[in-house]
Design brief:
The chain is mostly helical and 167 residues long. It has 6 helices and no strands. Helix 2 packs antiparallel against helix 3 and helix 2 packs across helix 5. The longest helix has 36 residues.
Length: 167
């Protein structure tokens, strides 16, 4: 990766770089497949941690580690970058359904992420706050997944119709 020396760089090079970054950022707002797939993967790995499912401890141990590491690193970077670039679409969209579901998804993501970070650093240690954080994290994920699927249905990675119609 080349280092740009601002002192010797003329204005046209800086404008060109700024234009490339703006173009990439705008393009990122429409490329949701990684963010959507990451959300579904996090939901599935969290579902395997649910006490109601009879999953062996060996699987739960691996899923917990995967859920925590991916949630703090990849999920934060991929979904965070997509969400940040996608916000302009939310504000400019003329489609009421997409604006409404997008706003709800945004708030659910904030709640789920904040509680996830709390659980990562402090865990559910048996006190009232841990119990609340655990339940908010758990139930927001159950709301997020169907809402994201409905929000992005035409383009969703789970939309089987798009694969059937391409044949």
């Amino acid at each position: 990766m080349a280092v740009i020396d601002i002192a010797t760089t003329d204005n046209s090079e800086i404008k060109g770089l700024r234009q490339q970054l703006t173009s990439w950022w705008t393009t990122l707002a429409y490329h949701h497949k990684w963010a959507e797939a990451m959300l579904y993967m996090m939901f599935f790995s969290g579902l395997l941690l649910w006490g109601q499912l009879d999953v062996s401890w060996q699987i739960k141990r691996v899923m917990l580690l995967l859920h925590m590491v991916v949630g703090v690193s990849l999920f934060t970077v991929i979904v965070g970058a997509f969400w940040s670039s996608h916000r302009n679409l939310l504000n400019r969209s003329k489609k009421r359904f997409l604006r409404q579901t997008g706003t709800i998804i945004e708030w659910l993501l904030v709640l789920c992420s904040v509680t996830g970070f709390y659980l990562f650093f402090y865990g559910d240690n048996g006190n009232q706050l841990g119990w609340v954080m655990h339940n908010v994290h758990f139930y927001t994920s159950w709301l997020l997944v169907p809402l994201v699927f409905a929000h992005a249905f035409r383009w969703s990675v789970l939309n089987i119709r798009q694969f059937l119609s391409n044949k």
